[in-house]
Amino acid sequence: MCYYCGMRLEVKGLVKEFPAPLFSGGTPLRALDGADLEADTGVTGVGGANGSGKTTLFKTLAGVLEKDAGTILAGGAAASAERLRQLAAYCPANPRSFYFRLTAGENLRFFGALAGLSPAEAEARAAKLAPRLGLAAVDLGRRFDRLSEGTMQKVSLIRALSRRAPLLLLDEPFRGLDGIACRGLLELIAEAGKTSTVLVTSHSRELLAAAAARTLRIGQGRMPPGGPQ
Amino acid sequence: MNAAGVIAAFVRRDFLAEKSYRLSFALGALATLANLAVFYFIGKLFGGGLAPQLEPFGTGYFAYVFTAMAFFGYIGTGAGSYAGRLRLEQTQGTLEATLSTPLGVPALLLSMSAWNFLFATFELLVYALAGAFIFKLDLGAANWWSAGLVFLLSAGCFAALGILSSCFVMLFKRGNPLAWILNNFEGLLGGVYFPVAVLPGWLIAVSNLLPVTYAVRAFQLAVHKGAGPAMIKGDLLALAAFDLLLIPASVWLFGRAVRRARRAGTLGEY
What we know:
Chain A is of the alpha/beta class.
């Protein structure tokens, strides 16, 4: 399998419903209600209001969540959640999903190992990506809980980018970043888009437009099929 | 994916995290020694007045409880550590990130408690050194091959119980009936602190349903009476049967629990 080539992603009628907690009296939440999406190698933006289903869409495409209905084709073949976890690198909107007692570098080494990278590969890729995002080498050696929110976000981006996965899912990647880091990230997204299928969300229309030539919109768990919106 | 590399990554991660809490390790080691001292003085108090229930094991109370605690401390790691580790990942917010990677369920289960088992091995060494040099225990009669076999069968069985227990954590986060049973009844009914023969008949029947009863009895007989595999055949077969049933069942059920959490969207909840 080529881990450094993009591929066509086709999503049809994707449904994801979260059941209400047992005995809560609540009703299930239908976060995706038949979403359709097509994306090739390159960068595609996904816009939408809060609660429109962007994060659920990304988590389902990353294989973190299992879909309830619909089809996901990756490179023309049906992709199960397990296969999607092999194909996709996902950067969540919340950058706090790290081990706080470990340094940023140690965290990247650990998550790199889970993605099949050797310690040397993980360290080399982190060292290469860090300056592009304005992250100092000394910050990689700092304990994660002593980093600022923006620096945590940079580490989270490095975790996803260093996998060099064929499908790259960046959920609110600009959140908390300073201007220099935003510019660096835009360059990195453009570079990743040459070889991977990249999906990016952002609430900033300017940043989304700068990152992606094509932007789709999601609303109430639905994405109209077809091209740019 | 390189399984050895993943296990090494988990061990390194947990070692670094534990190392960052320096006082905790020292206090843990002190607590173990203080615990042992309590049983040492209880043993001294009753001295040569051996209970008839200890006769089959051919040893005094302190040697009995010392061996059982060292053994149970190790195999109990499997029973307790999976749920504990999983809960920690949930509350730290790292479970979803870990399960966003290509890491499969068998690799996760092999790696998740690797550090706990390594640390338990170290504790076992502390027990052995304390037994030999501080408490001057005589283990000259031990059949270590036999003891090793009991150890192996028991460790697998208790790890499976631990994995089953972690299924409750995966699904319900808090409220774990299996952990409650393991914590409150294994020591009481399994012959860890006293031989099960002390218990009333109906409780002995209940204790016979627990793998710990066979494990502790077989280990005691191998260590204190030098019993070979033929002498403890019944206990070994019982442990093997528990292994055959519990190990595949626990791995399968854990996989189902993870899948259910992915469907319900609760991997990131705590």
